[in-house]
Amino acid sequence: xxxGIKGRKAIVCASSxxxxxxxxxxxxxxxxxLVITARxxxxxxxxxxxxxxxxxxxxxxxxxDITTEEGRAEVLEACPTxxxxxxxxxxxxxxDFRDWSIDDWMKAVNxxxxxxxxxxxxxxxxxxxxxxxxxxxxxxxxxxxxxxILGLSNGARAGLTGFVAGISRKTVAxxxxxxxxxxxxxxxxxLAATMKPAAEASGKSIExxxxxxxKMNPAGRFGRPEEFGAACAFxxxxxxxFITGQNILLDGGAFPGTL
Length: 259
Hints:
The chain contains eight helices and seven strands, in the order E-H-E-H-E-H-E-H-E-H-E-H-H-H-E. It is an alpha/beta fold.
């Protein structure tokens, strides 16, 4: 299927590795020119070189912190009028809410809620004016089924989801859609980090804990990043103009509900 976005411009945040990179690669495969960003310059530049070589699209790498005003300004200077925006930021650490300070909460809310809202604010008017825009927010399956040790993520990402539920019903009239992708257990560095406390508590290795949890998933495995990227590319396509304000769960069937 031709997604109809060849030659479009996309900003993909936190895209040097993991799910962000998977989304960038899926868009590049469709002929989308990219601005990718992450804090680590070496990994980011390596990713940019590999995507250029493989897909032949323009890739501009901006090393910086997208959760800061300066980081956002640098990215938007490189791509002031994106057709596609993929919001993504590293999740806050797991833990016990009794140990979290107000500062911990503010960092989580800034990274996983306010940064995405600010990037939407800075790009959506152009998208509406040109009658095309696709915004995808990478959040978490915890929005649908909260995980106790991920309380910082639960709260911040649920806040973003609530905001998008309102604005996405306004922008769609101008062919600008805003949706959330909710990853469950995907085989990424982030997944390994969230398993570290369980491994330490049980005396098992992270690999042993991961293998046990993979078997517990209805799919019998963890998700592959390229599966996530393909879902993102479809939501960014010209075929997905009637999908907005939705939160699409990719978890191998782990969530047991009907809705």
